[in-house]
Amino acid sequence: MKQSTDGGARRAVFAPVDNRARVDAVVRRLGDAIELGLLADGEQLPGESELAGQLGVSTVTLREALMALRQQGLVTTRRGRGGGSFVSLPEDPGEERLRVRLRGWSPEELRDLGDHWAALSGTSARLAADRTEPDDLVQLHRTAVELSQAPDPAACSRMYGRFHVELAAAAQSARLTREQVALQTEVGALLCLVLGDDEYREEVADRHRSVISAVQDGAHDSARELAERCVQESTARLIAVRLAL
Amino acid sequence: MRSSPGLVGTATPTLDAPTQEQVAARVGDALEAVFDAVAETRADATELLTRVAARQRRPATADLAALRPGLHLRLTRQELVSGVGFVAAPGLLTDVPSWLEWWQSGAEGDLKPLLLDLDPQHSAYSDYTHWDWFALPRDTGRRAVAGPYVDYLCSDEYSLTLSAPVEVAGRFVGVAAADVYLRHFEAAALPLLRRLPGPAYLVNARGRVAASADPAHLAGSLTKGPDFAGVLERARPADFDGMRLFPCHGIPLVLVTAAR
């Protein structure tokens, strides 16, 4: 007998495919803007329909995103006259908030993120070894230097991400580069949690320098292996932090 | 009509097949049209910034809005151009440390401004002064073709960027530039390359393939060995190890075919 399947699962099938992704994108965009101080503590956000229009999402998507931001304590909503949504910067330090974010990832999801990252960076390094000449490596050298000189974990993680984006660009692949940029928006902030260790930061800088050398020598197999190992080590450390939470 | 089996592989050029020189010239013409858009932007920016300087004040981002009608016109009129604008030298404008007055055409032909986070506190990509499209015109004082390269700053596309320095009273103040996505350039160059009797491709001064009708040398790969920069400097055809090299007049691309 055929069962009536008019329940939630069926509705989910016909929901706009990227709705969840849109909500997450809005949460991340506004969340990052608040964390970074682009939106000031206490600042009133534009009205729902105006904000939804500016972000190019439906009001339903925006409402879901605001609900998530309220749960994270980054937005408060007051009703009635003079009401609306307001930015509220939490008082706990950045590292504590990052740990909260990390808790949102299961160890399995982090392992999978690491696999994706290793695939992107490993392949990028292999292709770059075939497709670069010395002038193409100037950016990577500069980023490796800035990484070892970064004043704090946040700056270090920005350089870490930029290195891997530049590596994908050196591979001459727009697709790998776009994937790497997208991946860095997910993993970038979390990496701050493992880059606070000075010794490890220097190790990461060394690993990046050895990737550059292999690329420069056209040694595509070792370039791939070195890039993969660099990424796998960082992911393993991140998972260790996650498991200790 | 197909040739008889006995003639397969000889591929004798027909009477109307172009010569390598003609193909190189027509590739050059296609990019000269893009350089026209760069030159117009450069002229507009020079005029605007000279006018502001004559009023004894420094320019701000609001002043650059006057460039928009021209930029929009070039984006809609020039088929190969997908992005166009003026990129200020850091420190030029009073209200921001750095700025790109940059417009792009979207998938549906809509025009939109590029809005970048150029704050070094948040963005790892705030310094754009090392990119070839900025550094080459600044350092040489001449127009330049950058790429092919993956443009992860502005378009996320594999691109060529054509640019020229903008100077006011002898001082470098930024560059005028236009983006050509490589797939569009290849679409324009491929019909020309395929009319040649043998496999042919175009490389930049560093030997990076920019468009190819040769499956053994695809766009993005490197051709090592010949001194392509030297061929461009001498502006004369040359031979290297079974390759015939033709410089595109005025444009830093070299047409590579088999020597025969």
UniProtKB/TrEMBL annotation, chain A:
PROSITE patterns: HTH_GNTR. Residues 20-90 form the HTH gntR-type domain. It holds the Pfam family GntR. InterPro entries: GntR_C, TF_FadR/GntR_C, Tscrpt_reg_HTH_GntR, WH-like_DNA-bd_sf, WH_DNA-bd_sf. GO terms for molecular function: DNA binding. SMART domains: FCD, HTH_GNTR. Keywords: DNA-binding, Transcription, Transcription regulation. PANTHER family: GLUCONATE OPERON TRANSCRIPTIONAL REPRESSOR (PTHR43537:SF24), TRANSCRIPTIONAL REGULATOR, GNTR FAMILY (PTHR43537). This is DNA-binding FadR family transcriptional regulator.
UniProtKB/TrEMBL annotation, chain B:
It comes from the Bacteria. It holds the Pfam family MCP-like_PDC_1. This is Cache domain-containing protein. The lineage of its organism: Bacteria, Bacillati, Actinomycetota, Actinomycetes, Kitasatosporales.
